[in-house]
Design goal:
The chain is built from 4 helices and 6 strands, in the order βαββαβαββα. With 133 residues, it is of the alpha/beta class. The longest helix is centred in the last third of the chain and has 17 residues.
C-alpha cells in the first residue's frame, strides 16, 4: 500500500513514533521540509506536536489527489486535532476518525519511547488501515 508518515515535530519521541509506524508498515517517513510532495498516497499519517501552523497549511491542501485517506497522531491535549481534521476534510481528503494522542515531554529524559507506547502506535496504525474506505 502506498503510505506515508509525515513528522511535524522536533521532538525525538515523535520521530520515534514515525520510525516505528513506518518500519511496521514498510513505508517511508519524512519531516519538514518534505523530500518530495504527497501524490496519490493511499494513506498519509501526520505525526505532529500542536499547535502547528505548518501542519495547518499542509492539511488544508490535502485533496483526494494527494492522499485518499488522512490520519493524525498528535502530541497534545485530547481534542486538539479538531481544527486539523476539519481543514483536511474541507480540502477533500477522507479523514480517519481515530486520532491517536500521545504525550511527549519537554524534558530530555522523557524523550524515550516505551515499548507499550510503540506497540500502541503500531496497533493504532493497523486500526486506521482497517477503517479506510
Amino acid at each position: 500500500m502506498k503510505m506515508r508518515v509525515i513528522c511535524y515535530s522536533k521532538k525525538k519521541k515523535m520521530e520515534g513514533f514515525c520510525e516505528a509506524i513506518a518500519s511496521a508498515q514498510g513505508c517511508r517517513w519524512d519531516k519538514l521540509p518534505l523530500a518530495y510532495p504527497c501524490d496519490k498516497e493511499r494513506l498519509t499519517i501526520f505525526a505532529a506536536t500542536v499547535p502547528n501552523d505548518d501542519l495547518r497549511r499542509m492539511v488544508a491542501e490535502m485533496t483526494k489527489e494527494r492522499s485518499a485517506n488522512v490520519a493524525f497522531l498528535i502530541d497534545g491535549a485530547e481534542g486538539s486535532a479538531k481544527e486539523y481534521v476539519e481543514a483536511a476534510q474541507s480540502a477533500g481528503a477522507n479523514v480517519i476518525d481515530l486520532v491517536h494522542y500521545v504525550k511527549c515531554g519537554k524534558i530530555s529524559f522523557l524523550d524515550k519511547m516505551s515499548s507499550e507506547e510503540k506497540s500502541a502506535a503500531v496497533k493504532w496504525t493497523e486500526d486506521v488501515i482497517a477503517a479506510m474506505k
